[in-house]
Amino acid sequence: MLKANFKSVFFITLVTTFTLLIGCSSPEEKKAAQIKEALSLSANGANAEALEILENLATLYPNDLEILNSIGQIYTAQGDPTMAAFFLEQAYLQAPEDTELLFKTYQSLEAAKQPSAHLLEKLAVQAPGALTPELWVRLGQSRQAENKVQPALDAYLKGVNPEQKKPAPETAAAIGQLFVKAGNLPQAESWLKIAADNDDPNALTALFALLEINLRQKDWVEAEATIAQLNKQFPGAVEASQWKQAQQELIRWRKAQDEMKAKLAQAEAEKKAAQAAAAARAKAQAEQIAAQKAAAEKAAATEPAPTADPAIATADAAPSTAQQENDPGLTGGKAQIIADLEAAEAMADAPAIEGEMPDAIDPAISTTEAIAFNPAIAIEPADPEISFEVNYDQASNAAGTNYSIAADTPAEPAPSQNIQEYTAQFPEPDTEASSQAIRPSTQARSIEELMADAETATLDRDFKSAIRKYWAAISIANNRADVWNLLSRAYLVDGQLKNAETTALEAVRLEPREVAYTLDYLRVAQRSKEPQEFLTELETAFDRFPTSPEITLSLARGHERISKDYPTARNLYLRFIDTAPRHPLIPEARAAVDRLR
User: Fold this and answer.
1) How confident is the model at residue 344 (pLDDT cuts 50, 70, 90)?
2) What CA–CA distance (Å, rounded) separates 111 from 82?
């Protein structure tokens, strides 16, 4: 029955076609009639017959746009995307400005899973308004595959709007990675966090990219949190990745941070205890003075009238004067405070090295040579930005030894070493821990303002105020070695050697390659350590900075005056002369070389 109906339709179609061909007078009209008939057959399901008609026409009219387009449409209706894409692309080549045909060709290539990015690029140029958000995302993907960073970002951002709809994790991760390549780390971090906020496999890629950003920015707290999230969502992923070493370094950093927090808390507790004890002593002294004053006034009121004999008056007054002189409560408080302040200032302003000639030196040395060897001369290096002093007093008692080393070279960031290519030295406790004892004003102040105030307080010799300002600055940026170094100097001139040593060590730890911080640490160490221990510190510093003229000269003096190792001292003096031939202390070094022959 179906076959009979089909034959009927086909016969009617042929008759109609024959009639039309007879009725048409021109070839173009005949072609149009045949195309129309083929499309009619395709609409009725006779795709094979329709294709046969069109293919016959194609032999007569090769590269005809309408014929190629019609064949492509029939293949599309037949469910053959590959053939449809072939003929539609041939048709598009005949009319590249036809946007509708361009879009059909792109769709057919996509359906056939053939390369279509070139058509999507043309579509974005000819009719960008015709692209849906999905097509913009696809364009971004194709551009990203070609490593076109900024064009890919432009396409992606036209296809997504996080305020209206949360993007797919894959898309958010791709945008974040493109921002990383573009160097826009804040934007990259924002998009990667969107991608990481789910259990999608793309979250792993996003988290690793976030970790890379954290390490590059030296944001250790965020890096620690990112690794914790990785271990929670993807157990074992970090251990199996290139970030295994970073995780171990962060564990060591956390341990060091906790230790520093404990030290800071202990130092703060000791400081408060010392302040409380000082306040208690001051109160007791004030009460004692008040009581003595009251007793003196009472005694004066009950005494008989003084005699005219001045000797008797002097004799009567003598016990009271002696009592005042022998009573430590009357003079001990303020006098001790003044003495402490004067001692601290004298220590800060002490000259470099003062000492006698070593006993082992031949006494036949001439007076001229002895004068030329003047250890009290401050050591000024060739570089005008650095100052350096070493002071030694060779006495029989080790407590009398005095060394000082000073450096004013500004701090500069050290290159990274410890965590792959991103990490250098871990900073010390974070802002919250470092600022526990700080009571900031109601209006937040910048670190530049705090540093300026601290410098002003130092010039005014208000060292305790300067110390508070430096701590406030550290609470804002606790990984700045220059602030720690300035804090150490303030502690030193204030006479707090333990705190000066701790903070100087922190500056050295943050910037281990900055020789100026090592010199300032040695300046503290010469006061806080025994001579032999200080000599060991000098040797360690020399191992790290063998080309530093200041450290070389300091070590030479140390071996000459502490260890009495004159051959080593002489070699170091010679090394100093070779290292810094224009140094102002070259005459002193040469005199030492002649003296130690």
Assistant:
1) very low
2) 8
Q: Each residue of 354-380: pLDDT tens digit?
A: 333 334 334 333 333 333 444 444 333
More confident residue, 441 or 255: 255
CA–CA dist 71, 263 (Å, integer): 84
- Distance between CA 502 and CA 131 in Å, rounded? 64
User: How far is residue 319's CA from residue 332's CA, in Å, rounded to a whole number?
Assistant: 19
Expressed in angstroms, the distance from the first to the final Cα of the chain is 128
Question: What is the distance between the alpha carbons of residues 89 and 429, in angstroms, rounded to a whole number?
Answer: 65
List b or e across 222-255, with b for residues whose CB sees 16 or more CB atoms inside 10 angstroms.
Answer: bbbebbebbeeebeeebeeeebeebbebbeebee
What pLDDT sits at residue 436?
42
By CB atoms closer than 10 A (0-12, 13-18, 19+), residue 420 is middle
- Burial (CB count <10 Å: 0-12, 13-18, 19+), residue 174: buried
CB neighbours of 119 closer than 8 A, spacing ≥ 6? 92, 102, 105, 106, 109
What's the rounded mean pLDDT across residues 319-344?
44
Contacts of 586 (CB under 8 A, 6+ apart): 577, 580
Percent of the chain with pLDDT over 70: 71
Best CA proximity match to 574, nearest among 564, 562, 555: 555
What is the average pLDDT score of the chain?
73
* Structure-token pair, residue 353: 């090295």
Per-residue DSSP letters for 324-359?
A: HHH-HHHHHHHHHHHHHHHHHHHHHH--S---PPPT
Instruction: Give the CA-trace dihedral at 158, 161, 166, 168, to 10 degrees.
Output: 10
CA 418 remoteness from chain centre:
13
Q: Is the pLDDT of residue 112 over 70?
A: yes
Q: Which residue has the tokens 């070279």?
A: 409
The C-alpha angle 335, 338, 340, rounded to 5 degrees, equals 110
Q: What percent of the chain has pLDDT over 90?
A: 21
Among residues 181, 186, 136, 182, the alpha carbon closest in space to that of 160 is found at 136
Around 403, how many Cα atoms within 13 Å sit in the side-chain half-sphere? 30
Q: CA–CA separation, 84 vs 68, rounded Å?
A: 9
User: Is residue 119 helix, strand or coil?
Assistant: helix
Residue 18's Cβ-count burial label (10 Å; 0-12, 13-18, 19+) is exposed
Domains of the chain: 27-233 (1.25.40.10), 446-508 (1.25.40.10), 529-596 (1.25.40)
In order, the DSSP letters of 403-417 are ------PPP-PPPP-
